[in-house]
């Protein structure tokens, strides 16, 4: 069987004008990931990346450190199918509905972009609404269409790969959640709930043949552990 490594990007710039770039901490996480991949002897036959800035910046840390260490790696190929869904679209469409249907969330609204806990509570509630399929008539891209796009990208990799291959993709939490759903046959809500636990720069492994796609490991982040600091492990 071949192995597909789905790697989440480093911490993005939460609360900044441009979210789609790594924060300083995200760059540090990505460097630690790069060192881990090279020093641990990971070897990839193909290397893919989503089109988003935070994907590319995370992958670049690995590419540059590999070159510095003299480790041969394949050229990075970009696949838009591994892009994240548009959280702004989902929030703008569903936040007013959430507040109207569950007014207890109103007290978190003023702090949505200044307080991480308030944002997390609102965002998790909104994504549960989104993946339920009950609000698809609001004009947002449905979870089912997003997951189909991710699965098409995964299927293209499977169809283009032989046996005993190791393939890495730098991507986001949403596509990894869609892959978990595919591998385990979960509901969208359960898969997204699991995906909320993904750590920035964590690695999840999936085994595949032309006929099978299964999950082997989920959310590996040993490269961030034992660093004697509490802020290095992040989820947003």
Salient structural properties:
single chain; 236 residues; alpha/beta; Rossmann fold; 8 helices; 44% helix; 14% strand; globular
CATH superfamily label of the largest domain: Phosphoglycerate mutase-like
Determine the number of helices (DSSP H or I, runs of at least 4 residues).
8
Q: What would you call the structural class?
A: alpha/beta
Point out poorly predicted stretches.
Answer: none
H-E string: EHEHEHHHHEHHEE
Mean pLDDT across all amino acids:
93
Query: Describe the biggest sheet?
Result: 6 strands, mixed
Instruction: Describe the strand arrangement of the main beta sheet, using strand numbers.
Output: 3-2-4-1-5-6
Helical content stands at 40-55%
Shape: globular
Please give the CATH architecture of the largest domain: 3-Layer(aba) Sandwich
Report the C-alpha radius of gyration, rounded: 18 Å
Number of strands: 6
CATH level-3 fold name of the largest domain: Rossmann fold
Report on the structure:
With about 240 residues, the chain is of the alpha/beta class. The protein has 2 domains: about 160 residues, Rossmann fold (3-Layer(aba) Sandwich); about 50 residues, no CATH class. It has 8 helices and 6 strands, in the order βαβαβααααβααββ. The protein has a 6-stranded mixed sheet with strand order 3-2-4-1-5-6. The longest helix has 17 residues. It is globular and about 55 Å long. It starts with a strand and ends in a 16-residue tail after the last strand. The relative contact order is 0.21. The mean pLDDT is about 95.
